[in-house]
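Attaching the record inline, Q. Sequence:
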Amino acid sequence: MKRALKKFVFVEPKSTHLHIYSRVCIPRLGSVLLGTLMRNQGYDVRVYIEDIEAPDMNEVMSADLVGISAITSTAPQSYRLADEVRAGGGIVVLGGTHTSFLPEEGLEHADFVIRGEGEFAFQELVDAIQRGDGFEKILNLSYRQDGRVVSNPERPKIPNLDVNPIPDYTLISGWKPGGVISVATSRGCPFSCTFCSVPGMYGHAFRTHSIDRVLQELTLHKGNLYTFFADDIFTANKKRVKELLRGMIDRDLTPEWGAQVRTETVDDPELLQMMRDANCFNVYVGFESINPRTLKLFQKKQDLAKIERAIERFHAHKIRIHGMFVVGSDEDDVETIDATADFALKHDIDS
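Structure, as predicted:
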């Protein structure tokens, strides 16, 4: 395949049903980041986040290459769009968590699937298509060759995230400043919960942006309504997050904000108070289960006492809780589902 590529469209389809962030549109960063990278190299770029504005299909169909992101809740929409683009002769690249784990499924709808971190693989793929080169050296890439699926080896995870540019939200069609934004300060998770996709996607090593870089990104969005820190575990390195919170307070970069954290966060009183001082609105806590057998199966390394202590201490600091639970494990039964709902109501979990 050899083709000149001048125009790229990146699409983040909306879910066909309710999912964890249905109440508020919290933009995911993959499409915006790839769009920023390619715009910085001189390409014509459009980015559509369907929860903000529906894609202009004339723009989509006129693109030389369309990048589509897919998490499991958006995969049906992603596949429908990919099929339509390919039927019109366009090149489709799928990325995101869902197709990273199911590249064969993705390749039923796309020309290429990029697994895991996609920044370098995407740029190498674009170069290879324009030169007419083979794809066998592009790590993280899956594609079809002679009717069979080829999945190239994984590439090492990006050690210094500052090599990536700050995502440019002005590329998003229909975007209005001052609303809800996502900022990723790190990638990876040092824990090994058996149900979780994060280690497979981003690895166990905790990799970060520099504090100065994060503060620079927050400054660009100063005055926004709410910031979602899109880290897998925002408080994994407590010393680092305290430094960040101190910088936010000193520079008056404290809109309401939220982040994903573990129950152990509340065991550090100084951190908890700094979160409150920095205007933390809510935390997304992976409680996962109130069933001790399920917690053991998941290798969650927490028990019901930890969960209850976390709820009490976050609420004592007037930080709201979005409780995240997984039901239906091999150790669960119907009674577990009812008991989970009763537990959430009893402890006034906010959402």
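The chain has a mean pLDDT of 93. The CA atoms of residues 139 and 300 lie 31 Å apart.

More tomorrow.
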